[in-house]
Fold:
Amino acid sequence: MHEFSVMSQIIEGLLEESKKWSAVKVEEVFLDLGDFTMLGEEQLKFSYEILSKDTILQGSTLTINHVKGTIECDCGFKGEMSPSEDSPHRIVPILECPKCRGPARIISGRECTIKNLRLVVPDV
Ligand SMILES: [Zn+2]
Structure:
């Protein structure tokens, strides 16, 4: 399960970040998830639950914000695009410009990053 290894990296980053703030607990985590990552929201949440056990992340909420995929092409086309439905399991989708049928580049939609964190920090 690809989501599991992705999530274990995210958790590592989260724990590091909360340590920087001397947080005693994490309440909510906001994650940006691009359409082109091909990662399943349910699987991510499931992995999060397992991996956050016995850490200060335990019991926190994982809020996933979906980021639409955007592509651009040399012909000037730029727009939103979803990964093609007949190949939902391709990790790197092959993109075709809908205007000229040439190869298009992905501008957004490949991110799987922590956007924000809600921490409980003890009073100093
Ligand atoms: Zn084009």
Observations:
- The longest strand covers residues 25-34.
- The chain has a mean pLDDT of 90.
- Residues 69-108 form one domain.
- Residues 73, 75, 77, 97, 99-100, 102 surround zinc ion (CB under 6 Å).
